Amino acid sequence: MIDKTNIYVTVSEIITVSARSHNSVEQGQTATLPCWVNPSQSAEDLEVRWYRGDCFDTPVMLRKARKFVHETQESSYNGRVSFGVKNAASGGLKTGDVSLKLVNVTIGDEGVYTCYISRDFSHDSTTASLSVTVTGNPPLLSAVWKEDNVVNVSCESEGWYPQPVLRWSDGTKDLNRENPMYSRLSSGLYSARSWVTVPTSSEVSCSVGLHDEHMQRARMRLEHYQRDSLSGGWVAFGILFSIVLAGLVLRAVYFKKKDFQSSTVNVKLEDPKNEFITMRGNKVRDSGKDFPDGDEVTCLTAIKGTPGFSSGQHYWEVSLGNVNVPEPKRSWWIGVTSEAEIPRRSDFSPNTSNGFWFLSSSPEIENTLQFNTEPRICLPIQSRPKKVGVYLDYDKGVLSFYDVEDERLIGSLATVFIKEVFPFFNPGKTDRAHMEILQRTEQINDADTEKPTETPSETRGEGE
Q: May I ask the CATH architecture of the domain 13-133?
């Protein structure tokens, strides 16, 4: 027998669904995939199903008979999905807004989602795509000196999604470079690497980003100098390099002081019995006497610290000013040395090839710091640091310097430490502000007050 029952569906019962087809969000953020019923009507009594691909029976989210159904839900979405709203004026389910809200988005959530709505004898569906982006680490720059007065500068950055673009520039134009190499990491994220060959006196920057958005940049300036042993000044350096003298890494990385809490050490100044410096506790400055080697900063005013280090990770901080001097010090050296005794000769040039690794500031160059490599490398800065943090990873051969107040990495020197190294300082010459090696503080019986392990005594001078 043929069932001749007629089924009539009125126009008002026909469901039409609309959605915003393309949506993008940063990993870790919350995504909303807008979907709504046309014309506007209550969706409270409708079955609403969101699913991916052909996984109709294992949905991302399912609501029917005014209840959420969790038994068949795809497990990776458990606790992460709910109804959202397509805009601020939306009335939610009461007005037919069935948008999907997804929290803590991962790159695994990227794809096409189907918004399916049904009621009695009518149903409709549409799709919405979700793109996920991840902004990677700021570029890491490394410099290797080659023959013929050129430097091979490499740039690498990781943690991107999707695959980023990498560009080189000298500040005025794009530079020719080796084709960038992109790799997919086990995490699903991408890394990028490239290099350029530039003259030993030049400036380069590397930019990595997602289609000219979310760009991360790092910049390096190279200057080629050598000390003239006769005049004590600097002249153009003309020696050809066939080996790597030092490795340099620069990265615009932010840090938190608490990250170094377990590595913090109390560094104390040795008493060098040097008439050209004045020391009180852990404060030091020049003595104000006439210097036989002129006004240029040399090892005549340099000083070592203790303890020495032959393994492990160690962090200490140096203050470069005080309340009585409005501006931070303009002349200083901060780093480490493997030399048991500091040479007091005016013709001695401390550099990375003879057991000295340090960062310095020059009174003559306002917005630049330097590493004592040969050739010398200059680091552009926004302003002179008031407090410098030093992080020594002896085992990995990395010495890093941080602007503590800005919580930013200034730069790192990469090398191989063979002998014991000691903290190394130079307060410079004719500088009103003193240099102070800060001491770690410790909590007393979990109280809120802190007690310094050492209190430096008062220092002489106008700048104290």
A: Sandwich (2.60)
